[in-house]
Structures are given as structure tokens and as C-alpha cells.
Amino acid sequence: MLDNGPVTTNIPHPSAGYDDRAQRYADAFQDETLPSFPLDRNMIRMLVDLVGERPRVLDAGCGAGQVTKMLRGWGCEAVGVDAAEKLVELARTAYPGLAFTIGDLRALPYPDQDFDAIVARYSVIHTAPEEMPTVLAEFARVLRPGGGLLVELQSSGSAPTHAFDHGAAPAWAWNPDELAALLGRAGLVERARLLCPAQPNLKYAGTPEAHLIFRKSGPPRGPEPFAG
Fold first, then answer.
1. DSSP 8-state class, residue 206
2. What are the sequence ranges of the domains in the chain?
3. For the segment 160-198, what is each residue's pLDDT rounded down to a tens digit?
4. pTM metric for this prediction
5. What would the CATH number be for the domain defined by 34-216?
6. CB 20, CB 88: distance < 8 Å
7. How far apart are CA 20 and CA 211, in angstroms?
8. Which whole-number Å values give the CA distances from 156 to 13, 36, 173, 177, 189, in the listed order?
């Protein structure tokens, strides 16, 4: 995949719909240590460990900034971007020492090869399937060689990718293999995946989930030895 700079788009991303419920969303998920989401937290920690000490990490779809703050607490140079202006305002107020930008995942406001890692925690679900290749190409563009990407999202399990009722914005539950194929076409290589079946008796795990770690080709940025 070629690094040709950010693409442009004039149509607001659907996740801007969070503006209508920004404060409620921020209040519901205000603890930046993710105590109610141990699987999410540990997959994010795995990504960070794979890309070395003090990595520059993009929290893509950062919401109110909780994960960005957690990443900074782990020693990362963490920055956040989100299409929902009110959520970004809340993030800037809650964490004034961190950098948050209003931006679209389809046209990230960053130069080529700017990040060692990207965390996309339940943010790409609001990207329509026909636009997903654009988002993934943007992720690949801003990643440095050897950098890593974690995508966490609601999954369709073994069923095809399909829309589901989210409330805040249009959303899609992705078939992990379909998404992995698109990530591969964006020039990324699978490193790990965690697939979680639905847990109807758990508040935040009532639907299947997928956690995919992919890396950009190149010498590893972390502790893993390079075979090349």
C-alpha cells in the first residue's frame, strides 16, 4: 500500500451522532482503567507491549478520552481523535494535558508513518462496509513500519457482516474473517485475534466480540526478534 497523504471527505462520519449523548456516554465510561472491560484492557496492553517502550499511539475514535488517558499512564505518547465534537470537548476538559483532535477516521489529520500503534476500540463499527477499506487504508498510512493496530468491535460471529441497532449511530457487527481480509488488502498482517462469544448474563458482553491485532510490514518496533 502506498503512503500518499490523507484523503478528503465532506460527509460527516456517522459517529458524530454521539454529540447528542456525549455527557451520558462520558459519565457511563469515565474510569480510564477500564475496570469493567478486562479483556479490552489486556488486549490494548498486549498491543503496547508489542511496539516497544514509550510508543506514539493513536486512540482512533477516542470518545471522552478514557483510553487515551490510560495509554498515557502506561508511558505512551498518546493522542486521541474523534468525529464527535462534544466528546472531544469533554476529553479536553477532563484531561487537559493530552492532545485531542476532532477528525474523521476516513481522513486522519496526521502525516504518513506518524504512529507506532493505533487502538480502534469499538469505533470502526460506525463505518459503513463500503467505506471500511478507506478507514483501514488510513490506519495503514499513518502507521510506521513494524507498527501495530488493534481493532476491537462487536462481531457477527460466523454470520456475515450485518447492521445492528446501536442507538447513537448506524453500526455494523463484522464477521472477523471478512474484516481480516480487508485489513490484509490494506497491507497489514495478522498477529493475533481473540474471539469472544456472547455472554447474555454480562452487561457489556451480550453480543459476540472480536479483538484483532495486525501489524504493518517492517522490522518489529518492540521486543520480538526480527528474522530479516
1. S
2. 34-216
3. 999 998 776 789 999 999 999 999 999 999 999 999 999
4. 0.89
5. 3.40.50.150
6. no
7. 28
8. 22, 22, 5, 10, 22
